[in-house]
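A quick aside before the break. I want you to see a complete sequence-to-structure record at least once, exactly as it would be stored in a machine-readable document. Don't worry about memorizing anything.
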Amino acid sequence: MSDKPCAEESETQFASLWQGALDQYAATSGKRLEDGDIPKPSTLQALMAEIDGRHNQFSDFRKWRYGLFKILDMALKPIKLIGNMAAGFASQASTYLTQNH
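That is the input. The structure line, written in tokens, reads:
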């Protein structure tokens, strides 16, 4: 007889641990996670695959966001330059007006 648990026992143990973790989170945070908010892995491998998939999605989002912000920064540089020039002219005009009155 083998000491290695069968796949069904492993899935049952994992499901029990997963539910225990969800219950502990609810007890600690005072918030119960809704069914749509969390994955429902049946094995540790399924959980790891879910984590890897979400990590990849987030990495893709960060790359996309970086590109978007870079484009926006480049598009706004002329506006920043004009704003800085206007501020400089206003400062010089203010200095001129206060010195001549």
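Two observations worth writing down. The mean pLDDT is 86. The two ends are 103 Å apart (CA to CA). We'll return to this after the break.
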